[in-house]
Design a protein that fits this description.
Elements lengths: L7 H4 L3 E5 H4 L3 E5 H11 L17 H15 L3 E6 L8 H24 L2 H8 L7 H13 L4 E3 L4 H10 L5 E4 L3 H4 L4 E4 L5 H5 L2 E6 H8 L3 H11 L12 H11 L2 H6 L3 E2 L2 E2 L4 H12 L17 H11 L4 H16 L1
Parallel strand pairs: 2-3, 2-5, 3-4, 5-6
Antiparallel strand pairs: 1-7, 6-7, 8-9
Helix pairs in contact: 3-4, 4-7, 4-17, 5-6, 12-13, 12-15, 16-17
């Protein structure tokens, strides 16, 4: 399912490395909806169905948040989760399309299971993930048990996370959404998680927005114009215009308005994007809705008993695994 603008090739031009030990002790702003959707899609039983407790409640998101947060804290990384607020009106079409894709995926799962094609069913099961208000509430409660702060954004979570980095309240943003860069997030830790493999590394890669812009010889405003041509969560983009074509056009003409005025064509068809749409998207990325008066970030005392109550007794997670995780965290705190 499409999330954000597709600029993965261009974003790689901004790759930098940091000694992993230097990251430990820093704050990372986590795009909550982005990572929770990933947990809901990825943490599943072998048949593709989401993880559930004894009452049949989906708990994939709680598993992901528990271990992601625990591993950050054990390594001395201080997470802050950022939850989406109200979406811009221009995003409503994208949200409706995502819902259509989910419903279509549910239909294909049933068809695949009837044919006995479990591999195909598994593929489509992952596309049916839905994040509802109860899951958001449960996620916030679990984060609170860890004593970890979260911010309820007024608008897009990526924009608020990017603002924390700009405001020196976080070192970088953890997300799989390249929109973070368009919102001005200067450091993007693309889906950064702590695993056995990560712990064995001496360096990790992240995307530096300043390095990316310098390497591409463009401004952030021009990056936004490129995104409009490619397609964003707020517009479908221009057919047949990908990231490399968009870069070429913007570097040649300077702005998307001049590209359109010049009458540039792609496969014989003139490039056109409605002026109001252009202005609207430019404003979303360059002047996003932000909560600037959020409370100072504070990491409180961890409620270990509440963590055990929620994960083991309420949602039936493995007693051994949860207790072992908590033990590791307690040992870290004692150091």
């Amino acid at each position: 399912m499409k999330v954000g603008v597709k600029i993965n090739d261009l974003a790689s031009r901004g790759q930098k490395k940091i000694q992993i030990g230097k990251l430990f002790g820093n704050v990372v702003a986590i795009d909550a909806f982005n990572v929770i959707f990933k947990f809901l899609s990825a943490i599943r039983y072998r048949d593709g169905k989401p993880l559930t407790d004894n009452e049949g409640n989906i708990v994939s998101h709680l598993s992901g948040i528990f271990y992601r947060t625990l591993n950050y804290l054990v390594c001395g990384i201080r997470p802050v989760y950022i939850f989406d607020g109200n979406y811009p009106e221009l995003k409503f079409d994208t949200l409706e399309e995502r819902e259509r894709i989910r419903e279509e995926a549910k239909r294909k799962v049933k068809e695949a299971r009837m044919r006995g094609n479990l591999e195909e069913a598994l593929k489509y099961e992952k596309m049916t993930a839905t994040l509802n208000s109860e899951m958001i509430k449960e996620s916030k409660e679990l984060i609170n048990d860890f004593g970890v702060p979260y911010i309820q954004a007024s608008g897009e979570g990526e924009a608020q996370a990017a603002y924390l980095v700009q405001n020196d309240d976080a070192w970088g943003v953890v997300s799989e959404d390249y929109d973070t860069l368009l919102f001005g997030g200067t450091r993007l830790l693309y889906d950064f998680s702590i695993t056995k493999k990560t712990k064995s590394l001496t360096e990790i890669e992240y995307i530096s927005l300043p390095k990316m812009l310098i390497d591409l010889e463009i401004t952030r405003e021009q990056l936004v114009d490129m995104a409009i041509l490619i397609g964003t969560d707020y517009n479908p983009g221009v057919k047949w215009v990908g990231q490399h074509t968009a870069l070429k056009l913007i570097k040649k003409y300077g702005t998307i308005e001049k590209v359109i005025k010049a009458g540039e064509k792609v496969r014989g068809k003139k490039i056109y994007v409605n002026t109001e749409i252009i202005k609207g998207i430019q404003d979303i990325y360059l002047n996003p809705s932000l909560k600037t008066d959020y409370a100072p970030l504070e990491w409180r005392r961890i409620s270990f008993e509440q963590l055990k109550e929620r994960m083991i007794h309420k949602h039936n997670f493995s007693k051994k695994r949860i207790r072992n995780g908590i033990k590791r965290l307690k040992e870290k705190i004692k150091e």
